[in-house]
Design a protein that fits this description.
single chain; 617 residues; 3-stranded antiparallel β-sheet; two-stranded antiparallel sheet; 22 helices; 6% strand; elongated; transferase; transmembrane helix; membrane; Glycosyl_transferase_4; transmembrane
Length: 617
Amino acid sequence: MNSIQFDQICWLLLAFLLCFAGSLLLCGLARKLFPTFRSGEHKPGTHRTDMPTSSGRAIKTVELPLVGGPAFTIAIVGSGISAGYILHLNQNQWNLLLIALGATIGYAMVGFLDDWRKVYSNQGLSESAKFAGVFLVSVAAAVCYFFLFSAGQESYSLWKDLPILGRLICSSSVAIDQPCRVVFPQLAYFGWFIFLVLLVGFTGTATAVSVDFSDGFDGLSGGLVVSAAIALALAITGRLSDLGTHPEGIVLELLALVCAGGVLGFLPWCWPSSWAARRSGIVKRRARIIMGDSGALALGGLLAIIALFSRNEILLLTTIGGVFVLEALSVIVSTRVLTPFYRRRLRILRFENKKEFVPHTEFPLPFLAAPLHHHFDLLGWDRKRLVYCAWTLGAIFAGLSVLISVDTISWQRYLARFLGFVLMGVIWSSGTWSKCYFVGKQSIAGRNRHRRLALYYGYPLSIMGINLYHHVESIEASEDVIETPAEELALWQRMTIFDARAMLGLYCYRAGYYPAAMAQWSRIPERNRKLRPEIVILLNEVDNRLALEKQETQPMRRDQLRARIEENKQPIFTGNLPPADMPNPYEPISEEEMSTGNIDAPWKTLVPDNKAERDQG
């Protein structure tokens, strides 16, 4: 390594540290200056599919200031421009740097507009408007790259080697590993321009939106972006040795490092914790700000620009961004493909004769909820553990991508790609493994009789001592409430969460634990309860019974007594002694009551007519 390369690496590392410090400082300053810039958006519907919205269990949401994104975006842009002067970039390299940073600002502005509307209009941009804005920014970056950067008018592998597409974007025969220069007014010139615009437009939009999808928990998307940015930086290091052939190398390396540094400065302000809105009083939330859509779209767009300009978009979409791909696919497949298709074509035979609306939670979707991280949240995973697992998964994908980019042996590179696809397939199929629940008996060491019934998810299997299921909760009823062989056979059978709740509530009802039965049935959303009319009848019966028990055990206030007397015009109690909760009838009457005559009607018969009778009493 010569001295020039060593100096460049030192300056790049300095830019990374400068961006980290600037982001850390700006995030703290933004939190102090804009503490009320919080989202007021309310999305209708249940926060959890197994919890109702009208049962008095409203989930309190705690929004944090949406200032992390603008803060670290300013740090990234400022550090990038400062490093550009320090590294003495030429005009061609400056063009590339300004295109990338300008696109980052454009993505952030689209997200900031969405955040602004959430704060002041209580509703963000529509999906079509957000997608259109991100797509236009990507298209503008592609046009500028084509006309303002020297390598913008070069088609390259894999695209130029495809049978049909290659003829449209390359007009000459070149080696497989060499780019193809297009010249005006050849057909390939216009073909490559159109293809480049579409490639950057769709890749930039998909990556930015995918990072936005993954921004669901504190620190989740931030840690994933750090792994992806470092992986891209390592994949680009080979271009630093030959800046004459690859003048974009040092610029893209700088962008990847400042991207990682900016997010690392933000993470201390948004560190993950086990906090959740539905149990906010149990665990303290460590995060103080969140990045918002402005930060998520800016980071996703910047990752896409770095990958596209370094010609690693295939690596980004298949390996580096494996977690982002899974998050985006879970949304597209569940909400945009399968659910509309099932609405029109699917026939659920058990509900075929019912007129009630069949909610999407009864469809055979791959996950309980989308994006993917919400599926595991509904399963009851600790959020901090979930985020740490996602970070680990992102680091594994990043490691595989580095092996692919630096390994010169073909079979090893294909093996790394194969392992990446296998890992993605395992994670995707884990939704099917875990989305089904079952009711079983809780095994307790040293206790074989009167085992309690419990709710589990997963498979009722164990392999080599490893359980393929997870215990969710236990109920008050024991196995003694099971009366028929059919009910015994229904145990350990995988079913939907709503069927499992209905079964557990029935067993609690049979055992006489009415509040527990009501708690189980109330967790079934109203639309799902309509599909189970017998549960609705039992729920109403339990509700009325609990209300009567509460009314019988509660003392009756004086105004209630007065209202009932005025309504019935007859005594409300009989016998010689009044109820214990009523006032003492022998308590002396104040002079004010005697002078004004304001004596309660129910007690007039208890007031002595003369002093002798009063003394006798």
